[in-house]
Amino acid sequence: MQQVGRKAVSRDTAPGVLRRLRRFRSDRSGATAVEFAMVSVPFFGLLFAIFETAFVYFAQEGLDAATNVAARQVMTGQAQGVSTITTAAQFANSLICSPTPPAQRILPTFINCANLIVDVSQASTFAGANVSKSFYTNPVTNYNPGGANCIVVVRVVYPMPAYLSIIAGNGLVATGEPNTAGQTLYNGSMNYMIMSTAVFRNEPFPSNAYSAC
Over the stretch 1-27, which tens digit does the pLDDT of each residue have? Predict the structure, then answer.
């Protein structure tokens, strides 16, 4: 009797279990949430990477514009005529970061001027002008704007922090290695070493504290 009872129970409950399994298998109400959870990490990673890349280009354009305006002050002899500008740091502060009114600051406000690395030096020829960005590794930068008709190289580097370094440093790439393209290890952290360069010959302005070429 007991064996028969067990078989009877088994026959009675089996169809119910199968129906529940069929309903579970055919239920698609949470499929969208599951699929979104699967693609959300790479989707947002790509989205934030696009935003950071655009931010880097925006910073580059702003640095280029500010560098060109400051370089023109050198080319016309105006910078050489300011007695308070004798170092690269003073050049950056007076002509790039905090220009004297009515001149206005062109450099984007989010760029920290304390982090700018500036080098102003002379070159004997245009072909021999040093336009590499390796000078940022040297703690001593030059300020030699030259006199009339001199060839001058103005280089400005801004170490822009990699704000999304968590995304850039994970294993989203096929090789499993950190994706640090365009970034440089600087002062213990990854940065985009944004650089702007201006190479020009000074105008034949009147003589000043710097010898003409």
Answer: 445 445 544 455 556 667 666 665 665
Exposure string of 40-76, with b = 16+ CB inside 10 Å and e = fewer, is eeeeebeeeeeebeeebeebbebbbebbebbbbbbbe
Q: Where are the domains of the chain?
A: 32-201
For Cα atoms 106, 110, 115, give the angle at the middle one, nearest 5 degrees: 90
Measured distance CA(101)–CA(186) in Å, rounded: 34
- Prediction pTM value: 0.74
For 21-52, the pLDDT digits (tens) are: 666 566 566 667 777 778 888 888 788 888 88
Provide the residue count of the chain: 213
The span from the CA of 16 to the CA of 50, in Å, is: 52
